[in-house]
Amino acid sequence: QPAEYYAIMLFSVVGAIMMIGFENLIMLFLGVEILSVSMYVLTGSDKKNLRSNEAALKYFLMGAFATGIMLFGMALLYGATGSFNVTTLKAYVLTNAAPSVMMYAGLLMLLIGMLFKVSAAPFHFWTPDVYEGSPALTTATMSTLVKVVAMATLYKLLTAMNADFSNAFINIIMIVSIASMTVGNIMALKQTNVKRMLAFSGIS
Questions:
Q1: Helix 50-81, helix 101-117: angle, nearest 10
Q2: Would you say the C-alpha torsion 4, 115, 65, 30 has a positive or negative sign?
Q3: How would you write 145-195 as a 3-class SS string?
Q4: pLDDT tens sequence across 18-70
Q5: What pTM was estimated for this model as a whole?
Q6: Distance from first CA to last CA of the chain, Å, rounded?
Q7: How far is CA 29 from the centre of its chain?
């Protein structure tokens, strides 16, 4: 039904705005969930198509797994700093010469969750199947709105939490970037389906 479709699209936009405008990790989590759940529903909206159903199930299971890792990372950050507020987290990093292992682990798990959302290698395996099985409009939304919002959120998160306090995180981003560009471009060459090619293009 058109009414439900437009309502879910609006929900996804609300989630996207919350993801970009967060000042608190709980608001970030809510934004991620609102956007993700909307996308799960839209992915499986072509109910009579088995590929659409399969794509929705894959997206949901992988998304739930990544969200769990992300939430665990937020819990570790709260354990290290005593706050979900981004400014408090940044102040903690700037005032502590040697942040605790819990802080590093929390930021790493949060990073893994966000890398899944931007479908960066090696967290990209869900992308081609989901793009291929989704209705065309949903694929277009995922390759534009979701991708741009996830990248903006990842950038804001790493900037806000001053992630360059450790060279290890810079190296992780570099390795993931190189891997994503390499895998995305090489795998795109052998695709015969336009949606799958779009998926690998998005990864790169």
A1: 160
A2: negative
A3: HHHHHHHHHHHHHHHHCCHHHCHHHHHHHHHHHHHHHHHHHHHHHCCCCHH
A4: 999 888 999 999 999 999 999 999 998 888 888 889 999 999 999 999 999 99
A5: 0.88
A6: 35
A7: 11
